[in-house]
Amino acid sequence: MHSRLGRPVRGRGAGAKADMTSRIHYTKPSITELEVEYATDAARNGWGERCYEYIDRFEQQFCKHLGVNYAIATSSCTGALHMGMAALGIGSDDEVILADTNWIASAAPITYLGAKPVFVDVLPDTWCIDPIKTEAAITPKTKAILAVHLYGNLCDMNALLALGKKHGIPVIEDAAEAIGSVWHGKRAGSIGAFGAFSFHGTKTMTTGEGGMFVTQDKVLYEKVLTLSNHGRAKGQVKQFWPDVIGFKYKISNIQAAIGCAQTERIDDLVAAKRRVFEYYANGLGGSSVTMNPELPGTQNGYWMPTIVVNEGVRFEREALLAEFKKHDVDGRVFFWPLSMLPMFDGKPENIVSYSLYHKAINLPSYHDLSEAEMDRVIAIVRNGMGISV
């Protein structure tokens, strides 16, 4: 399953026998000898003239995988979003529309620029932004639509791009959770004005911390490239001469070395995530829960297998999480609506977003989960809360 030097550093393979008393983490990275080899080389030799060697290689490999022309490796997805929005000219008193059901990392960069995040409701099947609600929220102040592909689920990019074209506003993709997801032949993150990815330790592929800005637009790429280097423009001959005030969101060479190894293994990493999801779906099939959808013409990378308890089924999220904890299994809550947080105004009219969070959880989903471990998780969902399945 692994590429050259792809032997796991530790842990079991998917078919290995599990210790029925061992803790099941909700997620952890897949690190093999290949990542260790590249990181060691970067630590020993990646200095001086070689200080950007793995960064350049990582960007090129990721471009090839995604099918885009330009990529800039960053210290986080948040940084990639921040710089990309800044390069689009989003600023004070502007508005950016995004789904209410999201992690704050999608909304925070909007506020960094003095702009306002406008939260709209999500679709009940994909849990991603509702295009109809999006269009209703567009005002003269709207400067972008932010499409966040939640848990690997895909936003309706055709509908959102049509809205963008109709109203003359860009559509941005937050594909932090969507490595491996494909929308009608195009990889998530490669479709909008720009895309942003996360390589946090919980993600399908990781650099520990890290991210990537990607685009097909050369002009936008060059703007972000300048911003990413403290405002020093490409081709500027004066040393230490910034042309504008920029940012410092650069990834390290050592992190990028790990990213190179992960990119070489990316097909296997996505396949492992899909294996985990499919086992859960088969084990919970025909039950009182709904899981991540894979709509016709798409592929879901299934970053985080999620159950949403169907209407009319008696369920208490905290009680199920307590059952998980009792059996030494990690569960993870579904994202709260951002408008419920104290720094934003409440929007209870976002009915779907406000109905989802308390009846959903994320299941453990690391790459080498054994079938015995997944059976433990399935048994808790089936029996722990007495849910009819």
From TrEMBL:
<dbReference type="InterPro" id="IPR015421">
    <property type="entry name" value="PyrdxlP-dep_Trfase_major"/>
</dbReference>
<dbReference type="GO" id="GO:0030170">
    <property type="term" value="F:pyridoxal phosphate binding"/>
</dbReference>
<dbReference type="InterPro" id="IPR000653">
    <property type="entry name" value="DegT/StrS_aminotransferase"/>
</dbReference>
<dbReference type="InterPro" id="IPR015424">
    <property type="entry name" value="PyrdxlP-dep_Trfase"/>
</dbReference>
<comment type="similarity">
    <text>Belongs to the DegT/DnrJ/EryC1 family.</text>
</comment>
<keyword id="KW-0663">Pyridoxal phosphate</keyword>
<keyword id="KW-0808">Transferase</keyword>
<dbReference type="InterPro" id="IPR015422">
    <property type="entry name" value="PyrdxlP-dep_Trfase_small"/>
</dbReference>
<dbReference type="GO" id="GO:0102933">
    <property type="term" value="F:GDP-4-dehydro-6-deoxy-D-mannose-4-aminotransferase activity"/>
</dbReference>
<feature type="modified residue" description="N6-(pyridoxal phosphate)lysine">
    <location>
        <position position="203"/>
    </location>
</feature>
<protein>
    <submittedName>
        <fullName>Perosamine synthetase</fullName>
        <ecNumber>2.6.1.102</ecNumber>
    </submittedName>
</protein>
<dbReference type="Pfam" id="PF01041">
    <property type="entry name" value="DegT_DnrJ_EryC1"/>
</dbReference>
<keyword id="KW-0032">Aminotransferase</keyword>
<feature type="active site" description="Proton acceptor">
    <location>
        <position position="203"/>
    </location>
</feature>
<dbReference type="GO" id="GO:0000271">
    <property type="term" value="P:polysaccharide biosynthetic process"/>
</dbReference>
